[in-house]
Amino acid sequence: MRVLQFSALVVVALLAFAKSHGTIGIPKPEHIEQNPAAIVETPPVVPLPVPYAGSFSLPIDHSGSHPGNFSNRYWVQDHYYKPGGPIFVYDPAEADGAWFLAHLAERRTFFNKYLEEFSGMGIIWEHRYYGESSPFPINLDTTAEQMQYLTNENSLKDFVVFANQFQWKSLGVSPKQVPWIVIGSSYGGTRAATLRELYPETVFAAYASSAIVQHQKDMSVYYEQVYRGMVHYGLKNCTSYIKKAVDYVDIQLSHPTTAAGIKRQYLGRTVEENSNAGFAVTFAAPYQMFQVDGVDEVLRQFCNYMDAVKPPREESKQGAFYSDRWAAWPLHAELVSRYNGDGKNYCEGPVRNDYKTPNCRLDGRTSHPTMISWTWQSCTEFGFFHPTNVGPHALSSRYNSLQYHQDNCYRQFPDGRSSGLLPAEPQTEKLNAVTGGWNMRPSRVFWTAGQWDPWTALSIFSSEPGAPSIRVTDRPSRECNRRESGRNQEVFGYLLPNSEHSYDFYTGEKRAKKPNAMFAAALRQWLKCFRAGSMSDGN
């Protein structure tokens, strides 16, 4: 489902996935001093069986243009399963599927609780070209000819083929015999809803959390939504400091005589070797994790720091004042180094460090396999480029342009254009025509999103220009075979207040309880509609 560059975009996505799906950031019990006599013993939690790890052979290209096959990983937990029960599939999307085994191995996750309540079987399905489910090694030497089979269509058909051919202990588990339910968040949520939309005979129901349904090249609205969230959380003054600072920086960058100096003031030696655009994207560093944590400790600290000293009264001097404050913020260079260049770069910042050689490289290609694959998907079909939200609410330099992000595609895949396999721009309209985009209305789908999640702007809940008006209902349709359409503007879902990306999938998150329970209640109703062998129930 993300920024400084494409690489940083995926870093944020991976951190969001890891936190939301229980691999990091899980609340731990605080140490409390107690009288030993007052301690009440509780029965130990019985561990679940280790999930079964398998692989499934799939064609590299479902259209048949490539004759080879590859192995796609999956994992299964059948501890709770009773014959005839539903199959729950968790789709981790653009990530290593093994990261999410907690959903099959730990009782505390919301996914595992569904398995227990509905006597279901749990499966984690790894996306092609991620984790260890790739037909080719993914690195800087991977060619466009090898990447070309990473398409939305191929990845969806992978799952459909698997679901219809999956066998388990001589039980009847095909989509014709038992209901298959797909659950995912962010890009995984998009996939869950799209599978239900395009392959209703395979996918009986879906839970689509923070799903992005409208694909578009220009997603500068990402930063506009960050701005709205910061204002809502009481940081409007901070957004004005940012705007004044970046406007001043843009003036400095526009002159060759001052461009190198302003770059060095922020990030130190060697940064002047980068383009203005490469430098410009680093201004997202303070709010880089907004979609994961909202106003986190870093952003709050940054805003407090910017607010700690009174600016000069003259308006004309405030831009330079706030730029100087920002450049001197101790965490800025550290954050840029952390989020840029796969973590291998070092930007020393304004204070010279003679004990470490700076290597502040901002315009390079990413070498991280996950990031390479996501960049290909973004460049060919999805878009989701993050240029600055130019205008009164701008949170970054105007040099962070749409063209810069498009050029990143050409830079990352140098043989892409010459081979004819990398399009001149992402084919977003073509993809929206297939999926329905904002007008996607599959039945038996539960939609959720965070009120201030930057990705909500392209979700089913969007209120952006061009998005259709919808009415959100907390009651699922009682009609078993009702088929929705783009003209039906009633959506079964829940917009999580004061929340960001995929919060309803966070382990231990109080705000997740209501939407998790809403989906369970809907399933109790929907499952009554399933009749084994009746293909009409998929519609």
Q: What can be said about this structure in brief?
A:
The strands form 2 sheets. This protein has a 9-stranded mixed beta sheet, with helices on both faces. Strands 7-8 form a two-stranded parallel sheet. The chain contains 19 helices and 11 strands. The protein has 539 residues and is of the alpha/beta class.
Description of the structure:
This protein has two domains: 249 residues, 3-Layer(aba) Sandwich (Rossmann fold); 163 residues. The strands form two sheets. It has a nine-stranded mixed sheet, with helices on both faces. Strands 7-8 form a two-stranded parallel sheet. The chain is built from 19 helices and eleven strands. With 539 residues, it is of the alpha/beta class. The N terminus is likely disordered. α6 links the parallel β5 and β6.
Kindly provide the name of the CATH class of the largest domain.
Alpha Beta
SSE order, one letter for each helix or strand: HEEEHHEHHEHEEHHHHHHHHHEHHHEEEH
Total beta-strand segments: 11
Helix content: 25-40%
Major beta sheet summary: 9 strands, mixed
CA radius of gyration: 24 Å
Going by CATH, the homologous superfamily of the largest domain would be: Alpha/Beta hydrolase fold, catalytic domain
Tell me the number of helical segments per DSSP (H or I, 4 or more residues long): 19
Low-confidence stretches: 1-9, 21-41
Tell me, rounded to a whole number, the average pLDDT: 90
Corresponding CATH architecture of the largest domain: 3-Layer(aba) Sandwich
| Strand order, largest beta sheet | 1-2-4-3-5-6-9-11-10
In CATH terms, what is the fold-level topology of the largest domain?
Rossmann fold
Count of the domains? 2
Give the percentage of residues in beta strands.
5-15%
What structural class should be given to the helix and strand makeup? alpha/beta
Distance between the termini: 27 Å
